[in-house]
Amino acid sequence: MENNPEQITDPETLATIRMAYAKQILALAGIGDAPRLKKAFATVPRERFIGPPPWQISRPPLGYVTLPSTDPVVVYQDVLLALSPERGVNNGSPSLHAQWLHTLSPREGDRVVHIGAGTGYYTALLAHLVGESGHVLAVEYDPDLVEQAKKNLSEFPYVTVIQGDGADWPQEEADRIYVNFSVVRPADAWIGKLRSGGRLVLPLGVPRPKATARGGRHALHGAGFCFEREGERIHARWIGPAYFICAEGRLAGANDEAERLKDSFERGGVEFVRSLVRGPPAAPQRCWFVGAGWALSFDEAVG
Q1: 134 with 110: CB under 8 angstroms?
Q2: CB atoms within 10 A of CB 107
Q3: pTM higher than 0.85 for the full model?
Q4: How many of the other CB atoms lie within 10 Å of CB of 94?
Q5: What is d(CA 125, CA 48) in angstroms, rounded to the nearest whole number?
Q6: Where along the chain do its domains lie?
Q7: Any catalytic annotation for residue 69?
Q8: Within 10 A of 28 (CB to CB), how many other CB atoms are there?
Q9: Which of 3, 104, 185, 278 stands the most exposed, by the fewest C-beta atoms within 10 Å?
C-alpha cells in the first residue's frame, strides 16, 4: 500500500475537491440547476463512510480491485466502493444516486425513510436535503453496517438509525421513501405509509440464479422506478436500468413471482409503465407485469 507523503488533508483543499466532484457527478447524471443537491454532495466526506483504507472498487467483470492510494482524493470519482465485499455490498454509484435523489426530490422539513442505508453515506445526503426541520429514518438489515452507520451519522440529531427488515418500515407516514436494494415487489408498508404527494424510489429487479464473482446476489434484470401517490392513485415512472444487490429477509420475494417478473423484463417495454395497481388489475392485458395482488400498468393511474 502506497504511503503518500503528499496526501491531501487540508480542509480547504478537500472542500475544493468535493465541490469539483459534486459538479462532475451532477453533470454525469444529466442534472442542471440543483443547488441543494450539489451542496450535499460537496459537503459530505465520502471517505468517512467507507471505512479505513485499503479501499476496494467494484470493477465488473474483474470483481474488486484494491486502490493503491490512501489519499481521500481517490474516492471522489464515480465508482462503487466496497463496504462488505464478501457479500457484494457497496457504496453505490454517485451519479446514479444523484439522478435518483433528484427524482426523489426531498424537501426541507420532509420525513424521509432510507431503506438499505448501508454505512450511511446517502443517508447523510438525505439529511442535508431535509435539514434540521426534517427527519431521516435509516433502516439497515446488517447489524455490522448498522453500527458503522450510527457512528458515521452521529452528528445528525435528526437522523435515526435502526437495524431491521426493510419490509417492516416505515411504521408511520412518510413524505419520501428511498430504497437501496433490489426487490421483486414493493413492500406493502412502502405503499401503505406513503403520504399523498409523496414519492417512493426503488430498484425493481430479478435476482441472478447464484452469487456473482463480486460476492452477494445481484439483479439479473433491473429497473429504477419512481412511484408518486395522489390520493389512492399511484403514478409510476421508469428512471433507468438498475442492478443493485438483492433483498434479504422477507423482501427476497417468491420464486414464481420472480419468474413472472423475469418474463416481463425479457419481453421489454418497462419504460412505458405509468401506474402501479393494487389488487387485481381491471385490464391485465394493459399491464407490463401482474403479480400477486399488484400490477404495473401502461395506463395512467385512475381512482
Answers
A1: yes
A2: 14
A3: yes
A4: 28
A5: 13
A6: 11-297
A7: yes
A8: 15
A9: 3
> Could you tell me if 245 and 88 are in contact, meaning their C-beta atoms sit under 8 angstroms apart?
yes
Place of cell 424521509: 112
Task: Name the active-site residue from 69, 93, 182, 196.
Answer: 69
Burial of 88 (0-12, 13-18, 19+ CB in 10 A): buried
C-alpha 50/C-alpha 120 separation (Å) is: 9
H-assigned helices in the chain: 11-28, 35-43, 94-104, 121-130, 143-152, 188-192, 255-267
- Residue 223 CB-half CA count within 13 A: 23
Would you state the cell numbers that stand for residue 86, as one nine-digit string?
A: 464478501
Look at residue 198 and give its three-state secondary structure. strand
* Residue whose cell numbers read 433502516: 139
pLDDT for 53-97, tens place per residue? 999 999 877 789 999 999 999 999 999 999 999 888 999 999 999
pLDDT digit string, tens, across residues 201-220: 999 999 988 766 555 788 98
Residues of the chain below pLDDT 70: 1-6, 211-215
Assign domain 11-297 to a CATH class: alpha beta
